[in-house]
Structures are given as C-alpha cells and as structure tokens.
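agent> call fold_tool(seq_1)
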Amino acid sequence: MIMENQREENMTDILSEVRDALMKEIPDIDEIRVERVCLGLGYSGLKLDTGHVGVCNTLTSEAALECCEVLQDAGTLAGRPVTEFLGMIESWDFIERVIGVSALNALSQIVFEKEPARYLVEERNLIEVVEVTREDTVVMVGNIKPFKPVFTSRAKMLYILERSPHREEGVLPDTACEQLVPEADVAVITGSALANGTLDRLLELAGDARTVAIVGPTASCLPEPLFRRGADYVGGIRIRDADMAMRILSEGGGTPQLRRAGEFVTFKAS
C-alpha cells in the first residue's frame, strides 16, 4: 500500500500506542481481513470480516483532494488483511489516516468484547457524565453542537475552538488552543483530534484542567494511551448493527444517525 510523507519511526504517539497494543492483544490479528471500506461525507468506516466496525471523522475540510481522486488504492481495499491498514496511521495523507484510525477502532471492539469488565464504562453519552459547575471555564476543542447549550447553561465561561474556515459567530480558530486550553477547568476535545494528529499536544496543554474528556465516534479505540496522557473520560460509540452503520456512512450520515446502529459509551479512567 502506497503511503507518502510518513512520520519518523521514533515518534511514539497515541495512535502508535493503540496499534502496538492491538497487535499484542489480538492473537489472530494477521488472519483478520477488511470486508468493506466506506469514505463518507461526514464519517468514514471500515468493516472487518469478524463483523466489527470502526468509524472516523472523514476530515473533509483538511484532506487535500486531487481532481476527482480521493484515494489511489480505491477499488482494491476490500479483502486485504487489516494489518496492511495499520501503517496508514503514520501517513500525512489525511484520507489514509482516516482509514487507519477506522481500523484501530474496529479492532478495539474485539478487545472490548473479549474483556467486558476491563474498563469502567457507562452506557451514556459523555455530556451526561462530565460534571461542570458555575465556577468552571470550559474549553471545547471542536464545535460539538449538542454540547454547546448544555455547557453554556452550566459553566461560567465556554470557549469553542474549531478548525474550519467557515466558523460560526463566537467560535474561535483552533490556533487559540495554545492560549485557552491551559486556562480550562474542563477541557472537552473532539475525537477528530486523534485523526488529524493534534490530540497529543492538546492533552499536554490541558494538563492543569480538573477534567479532561475526549469525545466522538472517532475516539472509539483502546483508551489506555489517552488515560496515560491525562484524559479522565473517553466517550465513543459501540456499533451493534454493522451493516446499518456502513449504510449510514455511505449515505452521508453523522453522529445523530449512527445512534440507529449502536449506542454511545463513556470510559472512565480508574
């Protein structure tokens, strides 16, 4: 599989730690194949021949598209061993990274099923779990629209940062993270930061926050590397209906529609 502009091998980041853990914890990982790949407009996804699905924000605003071609290897992905996809997390081609993260998330579901008591898990959306008081400054990296009215009503101050040239009024560019994230009492970070390579730095900046949470379907991987870097909560999605999930992605669905294929879960650091 062709990958350009790979990062240096000695960079140990969150995605690399998740990959290495999965390689150790799934004995038959070399036998698992990818049944289907979908690059959707909102989220992309990957279905394994084990029936497990992983999804990831497509990062359409960040991907560099060349003419009508999105992925050079299109039409040849289904049927390949999933291990061929794991190297994609090291690519600076964001579409390849999206596929690589989807593979990590799909494989993580195998571990979750094998060891259901391994984590502290609440079968609730993260917004229902994180505590915010009227004394708190909340910094939300990513314009997670359902969270905005909840935090606005609960917190002293809410800052929303977004990586987009078309930001809503009152939403700041994500370059403000260096100044604002260290001021947060509660930092809530979109799972998309896992895919675009910014999460490691964001967790460093949030080191003094009382509560740090990562949320979104993209953050549905093994949470230990996130916990080790200071995350208190990781909110992802558990896909129950693989075919429905892939259909939703192919038809342009996002987080609200994915509820029909599974449920949100929140992992808590022990």
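agent> call fold_tool(seq_2)
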Amino acid sequence: MKKWFAIYVLSRNEKKVASLLTDQNIENYLPLHKTMKQWSDRKKMVDEPLFRSYVFAHIVEDEKPKVRETKGVLNFVYWLGQPAVIRDQEIEIIKHFLGNYENIEVQEFTPEINSSVKIQSGPMTNQIGKIIKIGKNKVKIIIESLGCSLVADVPINKVLPLPVKK
C-alpha cells in the first residue's frame, strides 16, 4: 500500500529531485507557490517550494531504496525513529490550500507554556487544553472538565494551536 513520505533534499534542489523522481516513475508532490522576485534589472513571478528542502513521495516500502539513491536526496524525514508517514488527508489539504490562496508562507508551531491547543487524535480527540510542560517530542496538557483536571502527555504532532483570544 502506498504512503506519503517527506524526503529531505539538498538545499535548492527540490525541483530537480522532483523531476528525477518523476523520471523514475515515482509519484511525488512538490508544493509550489508563486512569489515575486526582485533582481537589479527586473521583477518576475517565480514558483518557489512551499517547504524548503522537502519533497513528498507516494511510495510502497520497496521503493524506499530507489528514492534514497536519487541524486539530491539526503534522507527521509524521521519521526520517533521511523520515516515520517504523511496522511493522504494532509497532502490534500496542502493542495487545496495552494489552489485557493495566494501569498502563502509556512509558520512553524512552537509550543509554549499556557498555549491553548486542541488534540487531533487519540482517546482525547477534539479536547481543548493548555500546555503545562514541554518535552522533546511531547507536551503535557491539562484538560479541565467535570470540575476536575485531567493531565495527559500528548505527542507534539497531535496538537493544533488555537488562536489567542484578545
């Protein structure tokens, strides 16, 4: 069964790697967004990678060595000791987002103590809580309900930051 994987590539080699993967009949996705570039003599709209140094590959397990051997590929992106699998839904969200919006930029989520978050999966799905402790790959979240507090260790990639109320 095919799964999406994030591949870490040499800087400024995203388009070249995507082309080489396509030449090898390996399904891949390089999210691009249009941006205005200014040179000394002109301005031009260019397609730039949304995620610098990353390309996504939709492959089966047997294709991993072929991807790793592709010129410009450094390695798969790892999460908790395994190549990180990207859900189909997340790739579709990126495609939809790029198809409907302009002037896009990527901002990383940096968890902070007292940040409000929503848990995205697991037994506490859709629960809202506050971060009370930050670990290497987990955050400790306090969830107040039924007049008591529940505290859960949740992987960082399973929480969604909530907008700050003003």
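agent> summarizing second result for user.
The longest strand covers residues 138-145. The domain at 116-161 is CATH 2.30.30 (SH3 type barrels.).
agent> awaiting next instruction.
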